[in-house]
Design a protein that fits this description.
Elements (H helix, E strand, L loop, with lengths): L2 H4 L5 E7 H16 L7 H15 L4 E7 L21 H4 L2 H10 L3 E5 L4 H13 L4 E7 L14 E5 L4 E3 L1 H8 L6 H8 L14 H11 L14 H12 L23 H7 L4 H8 L4
Parallel strand pairs: 1-2, 1-4, 2-3, 4-5
Antiparallel strand pairs: 5-6
Helix pairs in contact: 2-3, 3-5, 8-9, 8-10
């Protein structure tokens, strides 16, 4: 799917990418062809090529959030929350080079430390959508928790692999609840990707029914979540609720792509040749 296909008519369209997801996607996609012989910066080159393709096909304002470290404040709240333990060294070694290479290519990049990349995307979506010049914000990731940021056609999710745009109706169709209730829904069902299990005996259908009937978990009748279930549900809701208060930028003009920096020539050489450099120099600037 091209940025033009995801954009609306007039005004600025801001494209926000989950750099960590893209790095994983390219790493394991490349591995299918290399049979485990991982090029040291192969996934980085893949992500940069994807970003350049977006620019070549119409993206003018874009930013990338990354997990500078995988761990975040959520690890102190729940011991089973995702960590970098068990992550393949060849993949983990490409996190920081990706950030540096994106910056050299002239792309706004936000390495998250205490917060996660998803919090960065939520924060960037909030800042962007508050600007009167912005017609649409596209968040390029299939992650379930980002569905809470979707709002009345102004902020949408884009699932690149399935070629699908997810608006408010799409969130309701997929999860059975409105975007604002995604943290309540995930608290009940859990999120295996993030490492919390949800509440035993509550699947997606029951979770949607409870949320639609009572609203937030805080308003559930006491007998709905007996014993320790209520405390756990509220804890998991805290894990599922994205932080949107990171001060990443103040003006969407900071996201306008103006071409590569001088430093990108060196990065292009490290990434395997001059093709990326030639494409970045030829790509239209916003």
């Amino acid at each position: 799917m091209s940025p033009e296909a995801a954009a609306s008519g007039g005004g600025v369209t801001v494209h926000l990418l989950d750099g960590t997801y893209e790095l994983f996607r390219h790493f394991y996609g490349l591995r299918r062809f290399t049979k485990g012989d991982d090029p040291p910066l192969g996934a980085v080159a893949g992500v940069l090529s994807t970003v350049l393709e977006m620019i070549e096909t119409g993206a003018t304002h874009l930013g990338v959030a990354t997990d500078h470290i995988v761990e975040s404040f959520r690890n102190a709240l729940w011991p089973g929350y995702k960590t970098s333990d068990g992550m393949e060294p060849a993949l983990l070694a490409q996190f920081h080079p990706l950030e540096d290479a994106l910056g050299a290519m002239g792309v706004a990049v936000w390495p998250m430390t205490e917060l996660e990349a998803d919090d960065g995307l939520a924060s960037a979506a909030r800042i962007s959508s508050a600007d009167a010049r912005v017609a649409k914000v596209c968040i390029w990731t299939p992650d379930k928790d980002l569905a809470q940021c979707v709002s009345d056609g102004h902020v949408v999710q884009v699932d690149r692999q399935r070629q699908r745009i997810i608006d408010e109706d799409g969130v309701r169709t997929k999860f059975g609840v409105a975007p604002a209730r995604i943290p309540d829904f995930l608290a009940l069902t859990g999120d295996s990707a993030d490492g919390y299990p949800g509440i035993a005996g509550i699947g997606p259908v029951k979770a949607a029914r409870l949320v639609n009937r009572y609203g937030t978990i805080e308003r559930f009748p006491p007998d709905t979540l007996p014993g320790d279930a209520r405390r756990l549900a509220l804890l998991f809701k805290g894990l599922a609720t994205l932080r949107a208060d990171a001060p990443l930028f103040t003006n969407v003009d900071e996201l306008r792509w103006r071409g590569p920096t001088r430093a990108f020539a060196g990065w292009a050489e490290r990434l395997g040749g001059t093709r990326l450099l030639a494409r970045s120099q030829a790509a239209p600037t916003g």
